[in-house]
Amino acid sequence: MNIGVFDSGIGGLTVLEEVIRLLPGYDYIFYGDSANNPYGEKSDERLMEITSDIVEWFRQRDCRLIIIACNTATTRCRKELMKKYPELVFIGTVPAVKLACDKGYKNILIMSTPATNESERLNELITQNRREGQNLYPVACYGLADAIENDVPQAVEIILDSLKEQYGEKNIDCVVLGCTHYPFIREDIEKRFPNAAVIDGSNGVARETRRQLKLLDCYPPESEETSLEVHFTKK
Ligand code: DGL
């Protein structure tokens, strides 16, 4: 069995790295869908078409476990994909709101794509985990994943400066990276919010993957060797 990992481009590599760190000895196939980036500004219908095609692609390569290394595809499509492909296991990536709330931060900025920001799932995560005295600020970062994917640092700077202008006075002590592209600009974010812990959900995804592998009776791995195939679609 192979493990499929996908995202709308390079973002998913930040998740893949943590998964392989925790779970070496498996055969991974990474699919970076740069051709369709950004996912975060597409309709649910279009996202279902795109992600279903990727799932079919993985199915032909004997992937029974698929890691959706993308908050947008998880929050908008995971439920539907699980219904459509009940024989597969889908592990999702969601903004680490639970971790931020459990750690007791007071003023939490949740950065994500517009589609994740507007999702029912993010709303649930906020209402289920927020405690008294905690302020949560979800913000849709238009164009940011796109600027990271296409390596446009000037656009990244403009977007982050405007975030700082909007939230700089709110004593932000935690920034949740609710898009898997954002860890690539972690330092730029830390510069704007120097008193904040900047967190992402990769470790949670890796731990959930291990739990699912145990359920499938595939843990620990049979070999010590890790293999990785990487595919990117081009614009
Ligand atoms: N990396 C993705 C996420 O975690 C999506 C970025 C995009 O394509 O908009 O949300």
Give the strand order, joined by hyphens, for the main sheet: 4-3-1-2-9
CATH topology of the largest domain: Rossmann fold
For the report, how would you describe the main beta sheet?
A: 5 strands, parallel
Helix share bin: 40-55%
Which class do the helix and strand fractions yield?
A: alpha/beta
* Bound ligands, each once: D-glutamic acid
| The number of domains | 2
How would you describe this structure to a colleague?
The chain is of the alpha/beta class. The protein folds into two domains: 123 residues, 3-Layer(aba) Sandwich (Rossmann fold); 103 residues, Rossmann fold (3-Layer(aba) Sandwich), CATH 3.40.50. The protein is 44% helix and 20% strand. The chain is built from ten helices and nine strands. The strands form two sheets. The protein has a five-stranded parallel beta sheet with strand order 4-3-1-2-9, sandwiched between helices. It has a four-stranded parallel beta sheet with strand order 6-5-7-8. Helix 1 crosses helix 10 and helix 2 packs across helix 3. It is globular. The model has no long low-confidence stretch (mean pLDDT 98). Bound molecules: D-glutamic acid. The site of D-glutamic acid has 16 residues, from helix 3.
What does this entry show, briefly?
The chain is of the alpha/beta class.
Topology:
Layout: E1 2-7, H1 12-22, E2 27-32, H2 44-59, E3 63-68, H3 71-84, E4 89-91, H4 97-102, E5 107-112, H5 114-117, H6 120-129, E6 135-140, H7 144-149, H8 153-167, E7 174-178, H9 186-192, E8 197-199, H10 202-215, E9 227-232
